[in-house]
Amino acid sequence: MKRITLLLILLSAGISASAKKWTITNVGFTFSPTPITIEAGDTVVFSIASIHEVVEVSEATWNANGNDPLEGGFSTNPGGGTVLPSFLQAGTHFYVCVPHASSGMKGKIIVQGSTATEDIHFPAEVSVYPNPSDGRFQVIMDNIKSSKKYDLDIYNTEGKRVYLKSRSEIELVNIVDLSGAEKGIYILNLSDGRKTYSKKIIIQ
Fold it and tell me: What ranges do the domains of the chain cover?
């Protein structure tokens, strides 16, 4: 029993040691850096001017430059604050400055997690095959309903979007060709307008 307890303590210490703290500031009415790509377990600190206040929003609200809070999302006080790992699950988190969202003051945090964790939350009616791939793969929807439910986009680890397909264009079988992209890890996002689901894909 003591050995098990000691092992758990050591594992916990290892996780804590590998976690990072990221700082986002503001330059006038722009967040910097954005987007940022972090790992699950990392912490984000907003160190911003007192006239700014951050709230997490849905992708649809973000695109519309709105400031309606995402249910269960993170927020800060005026002047910033710390966003704990419990609010930063794997996927893309969209945030805005509450008083300046209409002016386009917004940013994104892309959280990379283990494939196992992502797969738990990824919609069961959607499959990606093959993964890893040479950049050519399929995103398969199980039924017509799910095929018109999601927007699909793919980002590299620098937060740059490399692929986009809106729900009006989604089919039961969606052939994605990123064979010209650099080898590495990418994040495939499915958004239903309220929540974003993410899956790690590998191009090799």
Answer: 2-112, 115-203
